[in-house]
Amino acid sequence: MTDSSLLRVAFQGRAGTFGYDFALDAPAQGVTALFGPSGCGKSTILRCIAGLDRPAAGYCALGDTVWQDAKRFVPAWRRPIGYVFQEPSLFPHLSVRGNLLYGAGVRSLRRLPPDLADIIAMLELETLLERGVAHLSGGERQRVAIGRALLRRPALLLMDEPLSALDSARKNEILPFLQMLHRQIRIPILYVSHDIGEIASLADHVVLLAPGRVVESGPWADMADRLDNRRGYRPDHTLPDAAATDCRAARSEG
After folding, report:
1. Could you give the strand order of the β-sheet that contains 189-193, starting from the edge strand earlier in sequence?
2. Residue 229 binned pLDDT confidence (cut-offs 50, 70, 90)
3. Which residue stretches belong to region Disordered (predicted)?
4. DSSP string covering 89-150
5. Cα(244)–Cα(225) distance, rounded to whole angstroms?
6. 21-46: b (≥16 Cβ within 10 Å) or e
7. Which phi and psi (to 5°) does residue 121 adopt?
8. What is the pLDDT of residues 60-73, one digit of tens each?
9. Dist CA 16 CA 85 (whole Å)
């Protein structure tokens, strides 16, 4: 792949007592999953890409657009990035419609974004628009958060374990919407998880992480047998039988 078709990042620094030295290239299309055990730095990578954290040394570019190098650091608010967190972080005083319009930067109802109706329909939010945030389920809140992020018209969508705070029923509710995003939107998605089933259902490309470093990366088809829910990766490139079965089942259902 050429530089123009890559998300290219390299970050060195510390977050408290946690030191990291990450370097990775990912396709600037499809879903790239960051997979590894809790505490290995998956969320740190996303925060550095978004410009929310500034590492001691770093490089970050999407295609030909450089957001950070030795001479520049583009602040978070100027980076065309959508960010979906573990917790939806919606504005509690606004309705679903108000949260979506805030994401779109709308200041007047006379200037609604042309893609608003499409995103509302894709995420099946039509019946929720006038509802307050307090009256939404966890899955509904996360769908609103995804819609708000997409209405920023981002060049890159970051998703930091968007299903981790949901119970099994709510995960099953929202996973089809994530699969639909994968099929319908054309922007690259960087998806953080330590759940094999999610990765198997969504990822085109996988980056395997150990604490503070990238172990290896590649297309899902080449990386599937390296994944392990307990350790993040397996040096012997094999999966326990049960985990391997879960991977195959999740991929075939997706």
Report:
1. 81-84, 156-160, 189-193, 31-35, 205-210, 213-219
2. low
3. 231-254
4. ---TTSBHHHHHHHHTT---TTS--TTHHHHHHHTT-GGGTT-BGGGS-HHHHHHHHHHHHH
5. 7
6. ebebbbebbbbbbbbbbeebbbbbbb
7. -70, -45
8. 999 999 999 999 99
9. 21
